[in-house]
Known about the structure:
Elements: H1 2-20, H2 26-35, H3 37-44, H4 46-63, H5 65-70, H6 82-90, H7 94-130, H8 134-147, H9 152-171, H10 181-184, H11 186-199, H12 219-238, H13 244-252, H14 261-286, H15 292-297, H16 305-327, H17 338-378, H18 387-397
Helix pairs in contact: 1-4, 1-16, 2-4, 3-4, 4-14, 4-16, 6-7, 7-12, 7-14, 7-16, 8-13, 8-18, 9-17, 9-18, 11-17, 12-13, 12-14, 13-14
Amino acid sequence: MIGFLAGIVLGVLLGAISGLLPGIHVNTLAGGLLALQLALIPVFGPEMLAIAMVSALITHTFLDIIPSTFLGIPDADTALSVIPAHAMCLEGRGEEAVRVAALGSVAGFLASLPVALALLLLAPLVQGYLDWAVAIILTGVVGYLVLFSESPLHSGIIFLISGILGLFSFQFAFLGAGSFGSSGILMPLLSGLFGISLLFVSGKGPVPHQHFEGISLPRRTVVKGTISGTIAGIVVGWLPGLSNATANSVVASVADYNRDRQGYLFATNAANTVNAVAGLAAFYAIARTRNGVMVALSAIETPPFSVVLSAAACAAACAYLLTLLLASTAWRLGGINRTGLTAGVIVFITLLSYLFCGLFGLFILLLATLLGLVPKLLNIPQVFCMGAVTLPVILFSLGVSVF
């Protein structure tokens, strides 16, 4: 029991750090835990490490919405969520955005429990039929978004150009000086497309006074967001080569983040949490490692699935309360000079990009920022910049080596 509780406390702490500090991913911290196993296992037992890793993974899915909302900095999990969340912050509704996202994560976790149990039973029987379907699913989603957009030609061009940028970034990721490889290049790539480019056009003046007057989520929004988020989370959590950034694109096919900000935030955060649990189920059912945390788990002795799922539930409860606590301090941002804050965030992103990927990271950040400005000029949704991740995944699923 001591190891169980210690693992949850440590995991929640690490998940909070990775969620609140842009560019620090939970996969990196899981690797750090793995390096400390010789010191931790004799004291807390072998289960402690696994519980800490899973708890950190779940906690990260709750807290990573905070820097997206208040700073406009995306990571791989919140690439598109930054648009409606930061927009609500600029309207003084930042706490509301975070609370809606947190509720989405709770709904996603609850929905993922029966899904995970079903996957454990059925996945070994149908996995062979699913692996080849990734490209078809994503191509269908992209085709739907492009054809039914207000400007299919411009949307398609932006998708293809961003896809080419993504292919270039992954193909030459070895030029980066950091040790994160192709996953590290996501930091400057997504930060340029969805972070700095949006900060440039976010306006000047003081940050609006942040006020919270409650949440009004229609039942239809909750049901629709839970269902769409669960489906998207299962797709990216179970099928190979996908990520939460892809889930954002899948959800965007049924929820407009410009017209229904609350619904989109609810659905995408549900998808991110479902993705984490589905990836855990995939690891236990068919020994597939869907993310860095699962890779780290494969290197240690893992407890039964029921134990890690119980730990995940405890971590989700702690992460939800911690998210609400941090969101309630949003009023302190009111009146801060937005120009200075924006400049500070841009400098921070630039330094992180250099730290992770060197001069090549700065080059990718520049290209991504310039491309990220184009949708605003053409008045088309930013979602089509997700081609930077989606196109490489489609080609990878078809057997074309891009990494």
